[in-house]
């Protein structure tokens, strides 16, 4: 039995507070996250996506399962396929290290190119590589700004650098 923490909001409204031991918490977080999450196996094939990934990639999950993420949608800023040997995501997957990239494009099922940034973190169990978790975020398209983002004119055209630590840990009871 898990303890349920409750509190009272200003105005008397009761609220239920989250507990890290709550069953299904991480599943709910990933399902409701507004950021696209894809999980790829060691060969780069898609094994899981969240609803935000379905929306961003313009494809239903069932149509993506088993597909190579790189071949399916990873493109350069001009819309051309990125050679597999030049793909920083595939390089990091092979080396089992975290990485990220900016100023890439994602090819949607409807043929539209979406400007993206992404972060990838190795997924392991008992020291054995199971693939990677890839977060994909739509960025501003040419001539459009998102919120208070700095001007892309002064930003580097491409940045792929290792992350200092994993983005999150998944609990085994997850």
Can you offer a commentary on this structure?
With 174 residues, the protein is of the alpha+beta class. Helices cover 18% and strands 30% of the residues. It has helices at residues 25-32, 51-57, 61-64, 69-73, 88-95, and strands at 5-8, 14-17, 36-40, 46-49, 74-75, 99-107, 113-125, 128-138. It has a 6-stranded antiparallel β-sheet with strand order 4-3-8-7-6-5. Strands 1-2 form a two-stranded antiparallel ribbon. The radius of gyration is 18 Å and the shape is globular.
Number of helices: 5
- What's the helix-strand series? EEHEEHHHEHEEE
The whole-angstrom Rg is 18 Å
Helix/strand/pairing category: alpha+beta
Sheet with the most strands, sense and barrel status: 6 strands, antiparallel
Please summarize what this structure is:
18% of the residues lie in helices and 30% in strands. By secondary structure, it is α+β, with helices and mostly antiparallel strands.
Write the layout of secondary structure elements.
Elements: E1 5-8, E2 14-17, H1 25-32, E3 36-40, E4 46-49, H2 51-57, H3 61-64, H4 69-73, E5 74-75, H5 88-95, E6 99-107, E7 113-125, E8 128-138
Antiparallel strand pairs: 1-2, 3-4, 3-8, 5-6, 6-7, 7-8
For this entry, give a set of tags.
single chain; 174 residues; alpha+beta; two-stranded antiparallel ribbon; 5 helices; disordered C terminus
